[in-house]
């Protein structure tokens, strides 16, 4: 069952957020420079914190290896953490843009 518990939902979350933006919301978020700067800032904090929490030498957070892809980079960070991070931050920004759009329309 390698990866089914965490990898598949992580990948599905990315697909769902990207499809929501490109096929439904169409906010243009992915074309905004500010979005990519935001993602870089998120990564600048996520890498050291997540790296410390998930380091294999002395982990604070322990994942069941049967539910991960096994891909870890950098600092032993499971790639699934980056996928969920992308999805969560992007979904929040899309929700804000959607709320702003509704507010301007009323």
From TrEMBL:
The keyword Transmembrane helix applies. InterPro entries: Lycopene_cyclase_dom. One of its GO terms (biological process) is carotenoid biosynthetic process. One of its GO terms (cellular component) is membrane. Keywords: Carotenoid biosynthesis, Isomerase, Membrane, Transmembrane, Transmembrane helix. Pathway: Carotenoid biosynthesis. Its main location: membrane. The chain crosses the membrane at residues 6-25, 34-53, 82-99. This is Lycopene cyclase domain protein. It comes from Saccharomonospora glauca K62.
